[in-house]
Amino acid sequence: xxxxxxxxxxxxxxxxxxxxxxxxxxxxxxxxxxxxxxxxxxxxxxxxxxxxxxxxxxxxxxxxxxxxxxxxxxxxxxxxxxxxxxxxxxxxxxxxxxxxxxxxxxxxxxxxxxxxxxxxxxxxxxxxxxxxxxxxxxxxxxxxxxx
Length: 147
Description:
Number of strands: 4
Region (Disordered): 124-147
Pfam families: STAS
Protein name: Anti-anti-sigma factor
Domain STAS: 16-94
Radius of gyration: 20 Å
Strand order of the largest sheet: 1-2-3-4
Structural class: alpha/beta
Strand content: 15-25%
Distance between the termini: 52 Å
InterPro entries: STAS_dom (IPR002645), STAS_dom_sf (IPR036513)
């Protein structure tokens, strides 16, 4: 059963608490795309409370990573708290972390996780390009009718 994703905002001084609730999947695209629109000018810190998010898939993770990147581009410090077990497990699988190690912990900088995933993706892309370049002389295009 899919639980519709939504957010609630609390403003306190130069900080904003964003309480997320519901499944973080592709259907969360619109609420996440507009989440930063509700953060007023002069805000220094945005805290995302994820206790209300019982489920996250890879699409939801990518959407959240993009939201985090956009917030940092606006000069906002981002803190993420309250990950539930299933979303944490998705991040462990994506990050290929060893069993028994929980990441992110209750108050782990999400920016470090985001950068690690980006770096790993870039390294995989470089490796794929290097492999393709190294094997290219040995790969002949098949011509119609040739064996």
